Amino acid sequence: MTVRSVFLCTLVFLIISIPSDLVGADWYVDASTERSGNGQYAESAFKKLQEGIDAASDGDTVIAARGTYVENVEFNGKNIVLRSTDPLNSVVVESTIIDGNRAGSVVTFAGTEDESCVLSGFTIRNGIADYGGGIFCWYNNPTIINCVIAGNTAAEIGGGLYGCGGTIQNCTITGNSAGFGGGLGCCDGSIRNCIITANTAGQVGGGLYDCGGTVQNNTITGNSARWGGGLACCGGTIRNNAISANVAIDQVGGALCDCDGIIDGNAITANSAQWGGGLAYCDGTVRNNVISANTAVGQVGGGLYDCRGTVQNNTVVGNSAQWGGGLAYCEGAIYNCIIWGNTAGIAGAQLFESGKPSYSCIQDWTAGGEGNTIGNPVFVDTNGSDDNLSTYEDNDYHLLTTSPCIDAGENENWMEGAVDMDGNPRIFHGKLSSRVDMGAYEYGSFLFRVSQLVNTAGSGVELTWKSRPGDTYTVWSCPELAKGEWSEQATIPSAGETATWTDPDATSTCKFYKIELQ
């Protein structure tokens, strides 16, 4: 029996008012004004962004009207906010431009800026420098959000951004170039919810190079370099990204090269390189990924090449190479994977010179190993909505109920509390047991949560929780957790996508509930 528990009690909300004298001042900048004013009002705005920054003190906000500001600005260690009039409006962001005029980095953070220093809502373009053509940080931690960083150049590292240790979020980083890290270089903060596309590096890391923080929920596509078309030498966790159509021009790692952190929950699709069309030299744990349609052009390791860490719960499908269409020279443990439909011109369509797999579904496999199967994994739709096998973006590699991969993997300690590629529980009662499934997706798994709480008139609280058609739940209650005396209250069938139960007891002021999926 799988248990999902929900605990409810009375909450106290505390509202704190902030004294007005602690709220920073606003300063206004407008490139269209004929001459600079005192910056204190929109009608008397400064003409240059730098004037606003120079006037501001820590905690202040500088607000820029729409327009093009041809200048190279420096924050000079101030923890202030520099923003457009509406950073969440893409039209405003695209038309509030800081143009570096190819005279250096467009924006420079070179002092003691921390996460309270914010750059938000600008298009940052036309910068050129040795490091950080668009944005240069001296390993400090400003927050950069809701920006477009485009068309900048670095001779050395970080065409778009260099050395930023703070959060980079909701940005589009496109068309930048550098020797290393065409889009971003040496940025060790969290990089999330960004579009990183069409950046180039003459050497290593077309999209990202040597970024040590978490890289999460980004779209990384169409970048190129000699080594590591998408990401290279990034040691942090790489999670839940769409990494596609990146190219390592004449070397290794179309999508990822030499990234040794956990690589988890990514769609790694249609990348190419000479060696390791998808991943190369990635020695950390590679788990819960769909690795599909990657190509090692005429060489070795279509999906993965020389990745020596643990490879677990991946769906590796439709990759191609001359040797090792799926995996080549991957000597670590390989288990709970689906390795299917890969091709090799010479040898090893699915696996070549790699560790012996276990508890995996491998097409035409004859080399043994505990728990392996050669049965068709029975995906939902390998051709996708366009009925074309070769266009992998819409192909659906979830498992149908007849799949031999359901309840056929090997459970590991890391799976407790972990999630699959969809963000659902990694171990879930599939058809017959709570053994983990093979591949990136857990069959039938869903993230249990209470979606609504209502205090109903004349009775107790009404609970509504996420459900599946056909499920049945037992509801328990307990007035005091310390005693742990749980009382069974009701058996509730699912109503489809949700289930609902109303406690008839209207007298309790605090009660705990436990909901069990039977």
Strand runs, count: 58
Sheet having the most strands: 14 strands, parallel
Extract low-pLDDT stretches.
1-22
Query: What would the average pLDDT be, to the nearest integer?
Result: 90
Give the count of helical stretches: 2
Helix content: under 10%
Helix/sheet category: mainly beta
Compute the CA-based radius of gyration.
27 Å
Largest sheet strand order: 2-3-6-9-13-17-21-25-29-33-37-41-45-49
The proportion of strand residues reads: 35-45%
| Inertia-based shape | flat
Give the N-to-C terminal Cα separation. 6 Å
Short descriptors:
13-stranded parallel β-sheet; mainly beta; 58 strands; 518 residues; 37% strand
Give the SSE layout.
Blueprint: E1 2-6, E2 26-29, H1 49-55, E3 61-64, E4 67-70, E5 73-74, E6 81-84, H2 90-94, E7 96-99, E8 107-109, E9 118-120, E10 123-125, E11 128-131, E12 135-137, E13 143-145, E14 148-150, E15 153-157, E16 161-162, E17 168-169, E18 172-174, E19 177-180, E20 184-185, E21 191-192, E22 195-197, E23 200-204, E24 208-209, E25 215-216, E26 219-221, E27 224-225, E28 231-232, E29 238-239, E30 242-244, E31 247-248, E32 256-257, E33 263-264, E34 267-269, E35 272-275, E36 279-280, E37 286-287, E38 290-292, E39 295-300, E40 304-305, E41 311-312, E42 315-317, E43 320-323, E44 327-328, E45 334-335, E46 338-340, E47 343-347, E48 351-352, E49 357-358, E50 361-362, E51 379-381, E52 396-399, E53 450-455, E54 461-466, E55 472-478, E56 487-493, E57 498-502, E58 512-517
Parallel strand pairs: 2-3, 3-6, 4-7, 5-8, 6-9, 7-10, 8-12, 9-13, 10-14, 11-15, 12-16, 13-17, 14-18, 15-19, 16-20, 17-21, 18-22, 19-23, 20-24, 21-25, 22-26, 24-28, 25-29, 26-30, 27-31, 28-32, 29-33, 30-34, 32-36, 33-37, 34-38, 35-39, 36-40, 37-41, 38-42, 39-43, 40-44, 41-45, 42-46, 43-47, ...
Antiparallel strand pairs: 1-58, 51-52, 53-54, 54-57, 55-56, 55-58
